[in-house]
């Protein structure tokens, strides 16, 4: 039972639970960003540059054909539009994470910046020092 109790202690540590919560929230946030890019940001951009649907924007390397047996051979394409959507999603996620980290750092700086008031003994010693200098 020693190994089970060690595992329970490890799994219930705050950092492991925090990590699990972060992964779940991150996955949900990723879905939100994907929907934002695919359904809100890219359609107006595509409209502005001539009605291009970026998700279907591809470079065709080889056209679709029908082989000798009568079966369709799919086209060979490079999905530039999907790649562009992924890059924009990454940029939005990176910027959002940057803002969160910046806010956390700002809160930590404020906590560190507030120095503790000197103890009464220290004030008394300073008064004695100053009176001896005179």
Structure characterization notes:
69% of the residues lie in helices and 8% in strands. By secondary structure, the chain is mostly helical. The chain has a two-stranded antiparallel ribbon with strand order 1-4. A hairpin with a 5-residue loop joins strand 2 (65-66) and strand 3. The longest helix is centred in the first third of the chain and has 35 residues, at 14-48.
Binned strand content: 5-15%
Report, as a whole number of angstroms, the end-to-end distance.
72 Å
Enumerate the spans where pLDDT stays under 50 for 5 or more consecutive residues.
none
- The structure class reads mainly alpha
The ordered H/E elements are HHEEEEHH
Shape, per Cα inertia axes: elongated
Mean pLDDT: 82
Q: Helical element count?
A: 4
Rg of Cα set: 30 Å
> How many strand elements?
4
Which percent bin holds the helix content? 55-70%
Q: Provide the spatial order of strands within the biggest beta sheet.
A: 1-4
Concise overview:
By secondary structure, the chain is mostly helical. Helices cover 69% and strands 8% of the residues.
Keywords:
8% strand; two-stranded antiparallel sheet; 4 helices; two-stranded antiparallel ribbon; 134 residues; single chain; 4 strands; mainly alpha
